[in-house]
Write a structure and sequence with these properties.
183 residues; alpha+beta; 6-stranded antiparallel beta sheet; 2 helices; rod-shaped
Length: 183
């Protein structure tokens, strides 16, 4: 009598191999997905760090220019502030001058003679604004991404002290986000 050839017999080793192959396929998909998410996070962190260092370099150049102006003559500080786009306006009340930075943009030609400090990593310009109120000079350098450096200097007896040096980022809500748990 002839044996029927229609049935397939799966032994324990074949079943075990099938389960291992399925587990490896799932782990491969999870590994690729995780690595792509890590790449995205790393690129965002690199951009954030680059922008922070660029703002720091512009701020350091600003403070170095103010320091150099203080060691020269009385009018040198006003010249430096004008070089940074600060409009010098004489106060009608007498005594002190009021310096107002009208929202200016640093692009192409850099402030302080440093061409690398004029643009953000993506080539977008850095804008700045600020004021001078007596002894205090406040300057804010901003990028289109929302990253901002706020500097406050106190000028006394031809020296300066840094009252504030703060880097912040404006929160941007990119949508509803991902909800992992709705509970």
């Amino acid at each position: 009598m002839a044996k029927p050839h229609g049935s397939v017999r799966i032994g324990p080793i074949s079943l075990f191999t099938l389960i291992i192959v399925l587990c490896l396929a799932v782990l491969t998909v999870l590994s690729v997905t995780t690595s792509l998410a890590e790449l995205s996070t790393t690129e965002r962190q690199a951009a954030t760090t680059t922008e922070t260092y660029q703002l720091e370099a512009i701020g350091q150049q600003f403070v170095a220019d103010v320091d150099a102006a203080l060691t020269r003559s009385d009018g040198a500080l006003n010249e430096v502030l004008v070089d940074y786009g600060i409009q010098v306006q004489s106060s009608s009340t007498g005594g002190s001058e009021e310096l107002v930075i009208e929202d200016d943009t640093v692009a192409g030609e850099a402030v302080g003679g440093d061409p690398s400090a004029a643009e953000a990593a993506d080539g977008s310009p850095v804008t700045f604004s600020g004021t001078r109120d007596g002894e205090l000079i406040s300057a804010t350098f901003s990028m289109e991404s929302g990253r901002t450096l706020a500097i406050v200097l106190r000028i006394q007896n031809d020296t300066y002290t840094i009252e504030q040096w703060k880097v912040t980022t404006e929160w941007t809500d990119d949508g509803t986000g991902e909800n992992l748990w709705l509970g």
